[in-house]
Specification:
The complex is a heterodimer of chains A (725) and B (107). With 725 residues, chain A is mainly α. Chain A contains 30 helices and five strands. Chain B contains four helices and no strands. Chains A and B meet through helix 27 of A and helix 2 of B.
Chain lengths: 725, 107
């Protein structure tokens, strides 16, 4: 194993945004009041800018060394060292995470800048930027982590920030519900992630190679082969568990439902978290663990199938949405499906390539839609838009470019990356999955252009008040759009396939990372004819989709009714209502949970409480009996003793008359008696003395009974004693 | 004279002593006046003195009895002093020397 290059600056990529989050989170309210919102945005944007600079430094450091040496390691702290579990807080950059930090810090930085304009009028400006910084720190931790556990820390961190930002406008119940939904659905995925980590570590530890560090895992993962967990191959089970985590985070069937609802958050959040970065974490994680997935063809098959189905399924829902952000949300789910499909067919490089290009054009689309929403006075229904082309030219052009990119029109970025995935799917022998992806590509082109035509062309359908206030967004919002649109145009050239005369720099760059594992479907250049045909087909189908959208929503020569009327409108209603998946989940998972909680409540209330109350009652009864025994028998004896003592004392004290004469008489009498007693025989004396004592006792008792202070009624109670006082 | 004296034996002295003792005891028991009681005590002490002297005289030699008698006289003087002091104290507190009035310690 060649040694990683040890550096000590990678930590700053994470620490800068974290510092920004702390400053804005702790002192934000004070800063905003004292120095205005400008101070907040300066802090937030400068820390992400610094992180980007360090990310660039790391990237160029990688570029400057030999491909096989491209692994920078910054071990910051010892963390968990228990037995064979050796985990440090360590950050690593290899070609894969090098790309990711540039995306996260770069696009994240642009969205920070955009947010300055978008959130300008929001009261909780500081809170927004604190979350945004914290998110950046968590996301960078996720991609920089050199082991699964630290990755999980970032994984949970981004989930937390996502929750906080979806429910950012928490005064509306709907938003907080969406936040809860995202958080809870992600918990299901996280359970899968942790189980996967446990299985990997546990199974490897049995063969003495327990580790969670990616670099070591890539060398020891083959020990999983042949191991069984719960009667299943360990590698398959671990890969599937990790995929459950990825499906939660990257919004795949069946856990995608949170992502469309997550659009309740501010639009920059949708762009940053729910399009460009966080949702790609699942794809990144699977690419990072590619050596595990490569061990299990079954898991790969599941991943590929789920990815392709998600791509198509989400695309069909996207066809019938009217909320500008919901369309983009389903489009994101669909594009994530492509990436997962890429992972599933072993085209890891292509998946990451699509991740990157998608980050550009989808962030641009979201920010563009944010710009539109801003101009429309928070209106999100596309039926009330239209004709915005002249009012907002910059937004329009950047949006249009990105739409072309996502539709897969050459030579824009989306074409290269999506086609790479489709081509590798086809050439890997998954023709049916290719067909699903191909159909989804047609739908993508259609619904994206449907959106463009509805929003930017035709008559404006908003009310007059809104129309008067239509305006292009300020430069702080449009410049990021321009930069992202440039990315959407040019990012694709990094991965021009060899078939088109390129050299696919991107694949070569990632080659050291993915070389160790499964080779993937070796790009078969000898059937280039097929590749050209497929390319032409996907461009053609995209163009067809665009043309159909043009006819329906620009020319209006074809009525959308031909879709809505199909099969008596049943398919349309199903799609419009998102296949009733939310309703289904509500009826099963949510209702089930509620029913179970109701059962638990009643079990608690009627069974547990009954037992507890019964025990308490029995104890109380026993305590009462013991109390009576104490009051009557114990206290009675004590009271009687006290009363007897008192009575005797009371009698005896009267002997003390204080009269000297009597004392003297007694003395004289006693002395006189003392003269005579010894002369009396003991046989006579003893009975006399006993008789005397008995007489004294009898008289004493008689006197006590006559002069009792405690009445019988109270003799055996606590009050009795007080009678003595 | 001699004969006359010889007629008086130990027994006579003891009778005198007994008489004085009984008188003293009676005085102590019956008096309500504290000073009267003190006087009674003096009588009792002196009856004891008579006994000492008498036994000393009629027993074989030694001056033990006479010395004891001197001790008793001295003791009686001291006792009288203390007794009178107590009586004065009682008087100051109760404005009376009637012992029946002094019953603060009555049970």
């Amino acid at each position: 194993m060649d040694h990683p290059l040890l550096v000590s600056y990678l930590r700053w990529i994470v620490l800068f945004p974290l510092i920004g989050a702390i400053i804005n989170g702790v002192f934000g309210a004070m800063l905003q009041k004292r120095f205005g919102k400008k101070a907040i945005s300066i802090v937030a944007c400068s820390v992400i800018g610094l992180a980007f600079i360090f990310a660039l430094r790391a990237f160029f450091h990688l570029v400057s060394v030999e491909p096989e040496q491209r692994y920078l390691l910054d071990s910051v702290l010892r963390w968990i060292h228990i037995g064979s579990l050796q985990v440090d807080i360590a950050f690593a950059v290899d070609p894969l995470s090098g790309i990711m930090i540039l995306i996260v810090a770069g696009i994240g930085g642009l969205i920070h800048v955009y947010s300055i304009g978008y959130m300008r009028d929001d009261e909780a400006y500081w809170r927004f930027f604190a979350y945004l910084n914290l998110f950046s720190a968590a996301m960078l931790t996720l991609v920089l982590a050199d082991n699964l556990l630290l990755m999980f820390v970032g994984w949970e961190g981004v989930g937390l920030c996502s929750y906080g930002l979806i429910g950012f406008w928490y005064k509306e119940h709907e938003n907080t519900t969406a936040g809860n939904k995202a958080f809870i659905v992600n918990r299901i995925g996280d359970a899968g992630f942790t189980l996967g980590v446990f299985i990997i570590f546990w199974s490897l530890a049995e063969s003495g190679h327990g580790t969670v560090i990616f670099r070591d895992l890539s060398h020891t993962i083959h020990y999983l082969e042949g191991q069984m967990v719960w009667g299943l191959p360990a590698a398959t089970l671990a890969a599937l568990c990790l995929f459950v985590g990825a499906a939660g985070k990257s919004a795949q069937i069946p856990l995608y439902v949170w992502l469309p609802d997550a659009m309740a958050g501010p639009t920059p959040v949708s762009a940053l978290i729910h399009a460009a970065t966080m949702v790609t974490a699942g794809v990144y994680m699977m690419a990072r663990m590619h050596f595990l997935f490569s061990l299990s063809p079954v898991a790969l098959g599941v991943v590929a199938t789920v990815g392709a189905l998600t791509a198509l399924f989400a695309a069909t829902i996207g066809l019938a949405q009217f909320d500008i952000k919901k369309v983009l949300a389903y489009s994101t789910v669909s594009q994530l499906g492509y990436m997962v499909l890429g992972i599933g067919v072993g085209a890891y490089g292509a998946a990451i390539f699509h991740l990157m290009t998608h980050a550009f054009f989808k962030a641009c689309l979201f920010l563009g839609s944010g710009s539109v929403i801003h101009a429309m006075g928070d209106e999100q229904d596309m039926r009330k838009m239209g004709g915005l082309r002249e009012k907002m030219p910059l937004t329009f052009w950047t949006f249009l470019i990105s739409t072309f990119a996502i539709a897969g029109i050459p030579p824009l970025a989306g074409f290269f990356s999506k086609d790479e995935i489709l081509w590798q799917t086809f050439s890997g022998g998954h023709q049916f999955l290719w067909l699903l992806g191909f159909a989804a590509a047609a739908m993508t082109a259609f619904y994206m252009f449907r959106q463009v035509f509805m929003v930017f062309f035709g008559e404006n359908r908003a009310d007059e008040h809104t129309q008067e206030h239509l305006h292009e967004s300020p430069p702080v919002m449009t410049y990021p759009l321009v930069v992202l649109a440039l990315g959407a145009v040019f990012a694709g050239f990094l991965g021009v396939p060899i078939a088109l005369g390129g050299s696919n720099i991107f694949e070569q760059w990632l080659a050291p990372v993915f070389a160790g594992g499964h080779a993937g479907p070796a790009v078969q250049h000898h059937i280039e004819a097929t590749e050209y045909i497929l390319m032409a087909a996907s461009v053609g189908i995209a163009a067809a989709g665009i043309f159909l959208a043009y006819l329906m929503y620009y020319r209006r020569s074809v009525s959308p009714d031909i879709f809505t009327a199909v099969g008596g409108g049943v398919p349309y209603r199903a799609v419009f209502n998102k296949y009733y998946i939310d309703e289904l989940y509500h009826a099963t998972a949510v209702r089930g949970t509620l029913a179970f909680s109701w059962l638990s409540l009643n079990f608690d209330r009627y069974v547990i409480d009954f037992i507890v109350n019964g025990v308490a009652k029995v104890t109380a009864r026993v305590g009462w009996a013991v109390g009576r025994f104490d009051d009557w028998i114990i206290d009675g004896l004590v009271n009687a003793l006290a009363d007897v003592t008192f009575g005797i004392g009371n009698r005896l004290r009267q002997v003390q008359t204080g009269n000297l004469s009597i004392y003297l008489y007694v003395i004289v009498g006693a002395v006189a008696a003392a003269q005579f007693l010894p002369r009396i025989p003991v046989e006579v004396l003893l009975p006399v003395i006993m008789l005397f004592v008995a007489l004294v006792v009898v008289i004493g008792i008689a006197l006590w009974l006559a002069t009792r202070r405690i009445p019988w009624r109270l003799m055996f109670t606590k009050e009795g004693v007080s009678q003595l006082r | 004279m001699d004969g006359l004296l010889l007629d008086i034996g130990l027994r006579h002295f003891l009778f005198v002593s007994l008489a004085v003792f009984v008188l003293g005891l009676y005085c102590v028991l019956t008096r309500k006046n504290a000073i009267g009681i003190l006087l009674g005590i003096e009588l009792i002490l002196n009856s004891a003195n008579i006994n000492y002297i008498a036994f000393s005289h009629f027993s074989s030699g030694g001056y033990d009895g006479q010395i004891f008698a001197i001790f008793v006289i001295m003791l009686a003087a001291a006792e009288a002093v203390i007794g009178l002091a107590i009586v004065l104290g009682i008087y100051q507190n109760f404005s009376s020397i009637d012992i029946e009035a002094v019953d603060s310690l009555q049970g």
